[in-house]
Amino acid sequence: MVFIRTLIANAIAHTPLIAICYLMRISMKRKISLAYEFVDFIPEEVKDGYIYISIKYAIAIHKCCCGCGNSVITPLSPSGWSLIFDGESISLHPSIGNWNFKCCSHYFIRNNNVLWLPSHPKKIKLPQEPRVHADNYAKLSNNIWQRIRNWWIS
Asked: Is the pLDDT of residue 49 over 70?
């Protein structure tokens, strides 16, 4: 027991605080289990906690698991999502990333359960290159034109 405490203490001491908070945020998301229903046509009103699967139209639809209320449509195809049904539960592969929604939720559906993944960053800010090079180029081009003008005048 002491070894495990020491191991955890060392991991926390050597892990940046931001990473710890991020991992805690992921693990604190609520555990959700989805019920499945095979249908010919997608119902007009999609219920929370249900995933509707139409084999005829090769599509699955459910409400976003974060609770935002958006409908998530997953087309089933060799190049899209694949559905695994073992007679008791369903799984979708690959993960579902709702990058176009405000929530940006990201999760797997495995054996009717939602497994949360880190959210995709909405916007990655790249460091801005200083404008020194652009300013130097502008000065250089002005300097060349001044030299040509001075040469022409003389």
From this structure: yes
